[in-house]
Amino acid sequence: MNKDGLHFIHQDLASGRWNELPFALQMGNIGSEISRAVNSKKRGDEGRMINAAERAIELFELTIENNLQYPGRLTELCRGKEEFCDYIFGGNTLKTDPQKLVKYYDQFVSLAR
């Protein structure tokens, strides 16, 4: 729990370690959770889908907070979070292709290596 009384899934990352990671690695980690959520949704495993989605959203929030000074990144992050949440929870009104969503974030994993 942090000073505001919020509980974080990723305690060590939320305590400041996340801010030390390069942006590409942050995005790659978000992508890993997105991939888990998308795959769980396809399998119909709602519990795992929700768990992975919650972790992805938390990582989105940590990354957004860490990139407030970068308007381009901020736009990308907020739009990515919106598309992901709409696909997972919102009935996919934005018509997001889950394979393209995962593929987009996979690029950051390669870049981080």
Mind explaining what this structure looks like?
This protein is mainly α and 113 residues long. The protein has one domain. The chain has five helices and no strands. Helix 3 runs antiparallel to helix 4. The longest helix has 21 residues. The N and C termini lie far apart (32 Å). The N terminus is likely disordered.
Low-pLDDT parts are 1-6
Q: Helix share of residues? A: over 70%
Shape: globular
**How many domains make up the coordinates?**
1
How many strand elements? 0
Encode the helix/strand succession as letters. Answer: HHHHH
Indicate the structural class.
Answer: mainly alpha
Tally of DSSP helical segments: 5
Mean pLDDT: 88
C-alpha end-to-end distance = 32 Å
Strand content: under 5%
Radius of gyration: 14 Å
Please summarize the sheet with the most strands: none
Describe the structure using short key phrases.
single chain, globular, mainly alpha, disordered N terminus, 113 residues, 5 helices
